[in-house]
Design goal:
CATH architecture of the largest domain: 2-Layer Sandwich
Number of domains: 3
Radius of gyration: 20 Å
Strand order of the largest sheet: 8-9-17-13-14
Order of helices and strands: EEHEEHEEEEEHEHEEHEEEEEEHHEEEHE
Structural class: alpha+beta
Strand content: 25-35%
Largest sheet: 5 strands, antiparallel
Bound molecules: flavin-adenine dinucleotide
Length: 325
């Protein structure tokens, strides 16, 4: 496995061997697991084993851990709640660091800036905003996952996204430095956050988001709750809530064309492949209907791409991040 760094050239990465296991144990104690099935940590409920799976629940742990991994030249990958991931059946080589336990109290400053740590569940942040009469977060109601994952993927819907509400984020950089970066230095596009500082933005899972601050606007809590109820109702009506999935599988090819409609038109709604199915309720959701493997889901993905290309000459790009061997 290789990784490309700007000033060094291609360099082989190390593997999680016995010595590395011992070191990880000494740093993390019972917060590290080996050959851990990723199916346990993704909303799709599929995915083979990660060589090592580390739970980082505070900033000091994550900083020391990543420093040690860099020194040992070990590949690592930071995740939140795994709700936008399809991990392949052979799993992930290297160390997966999960941040979903890294959260504390959500706080408000006098200028109405709301701060939350990267592992804070989005549902918690949305409830906090509603309870305290802050407008701006309702778009995210029903988006599972963490604050960190939502920023990196610029999670959102037709009525808003993370780029609209973020005011700054605290990043861990490859140099080990922790830096606050204002929203103006970041750019957001459809389901993606970009950061242009090339000299820093390199390697592994960098930059790692540790904390974020949001600019929210005080508003009438009764009005906000009414709006929230409508949004939750819309989700329940239009999306398959019960079956494991990773949300919309494909990006919409453009703002006027919905990937779900294209999949519906080519007649694939309800189509099965192994244990995976194109949802009957929403054609852009692939669901794990019956003990699907990642290969089943990838099989459906290819079928969709092929059929949509044949009929419309549109190349559908996955919104879900496909990772692993
Ligand atoms: C039922 C359902 C409905 C959904 N609806 C929506 C929707 O309406 N809109 C939408 O946009 N998405 C939706 N999603 C997808 C998903 O919930 C979002 O993309 C979510 O924000 C991902 O957060 P996560 O913590 O699970 O990230 P993960 O899936 O764990 O990771 C996603 C990416 O973020 C990176 N990452 C995670 N945390 C950090 C961090 N702290 N620092 C650096 N990188 C990090 C990972 O490396 C990975 O590249 C839905 C998913 C499901 C299952």
């Amino acid at each position: 496995m290789f990784i490309c760094w700007e000033r060094r050239c291609l360099k082989a990465l190390a593997r999680v061997d016995e010595q590395c296991r011992q070191w990880l144990h000494s740093v993390l104690g019972d917060r590290v697991f080996f050959d851990e099935p990723m199916a346990r940590h993704t909303s799709f409920r599929v995915g083979g084993p990660a060589d090592a799976f580390a739970i980082a629940d505070d900033v000091e742990v994550i900083v020391n851990l990543i420093k040690g991994l860099q020194q040992r030249n070990l590949p690592f990958w930071v995740i939140g709640r795994g709700t936008n991931l399809l991990v392949k059946d052979a799993g992930i080589r290297g160390v997966v660091i999960v941040l979903k336990k890294m959260f504390g109290n959500i706080t408000v400053k006098s200028d109405n800036t709301v701060k939350a740590m990267a592992g804070t569940p989005m549902s918690r942040l949305c409830r906090f905003a509603l309870r305290n009469g802050f407008a701006g977060m309702n778009f995210a109601l029903g988006i599972p996952g963490t604050v960190g994952g939502a920023i990196i993927t610029n999670a959102g819907t037709a009525i808003g996204d993370m780029g609209n509400v973020l005011c700054e984020a605290k990043f861990l950089l490859p140099s080990g430095e922790i830096k606050k970066i204002a929203k103006e230095k970041l750019s957001f596009s459809y389901r993606q956050m970009h950061w242009d500082n090339k000299s820093e933005n390199q390697g592994g899972s960098f930059p790692v988001i540790l904390e974020a601050a949001f600019s929210l606007i005080p508003d009438d809590p009764v009005k906000l709750k009414k709006e929230a109820m409508k949004i939750v109702k819309w989700r329940k009506k239009s999306q398959p809530g019960r079956l494991p999935s990773a949300g919309c599988f494909f990006k919409n090819p453009d703002p006027e064309t919905s990937a779900g409609q294209l999949i519906d038109i080519v007649g694939l709604k309800g189509k099965n492949y192994g244990g995976a199915e194109i949802s009957q309720k929403h054609a852009n959701f692939i669901v794990n209907k019956n003990n699907a493997s990642a290969a089943d889901i990838l099989g459906l993905k290819e079928m969709v791409q092929e059929r949509v290309w044949k009929k419309f000459h549109i190349s559908l790009e996955p919104e879900v991040r496909i990772v692993g061997d």
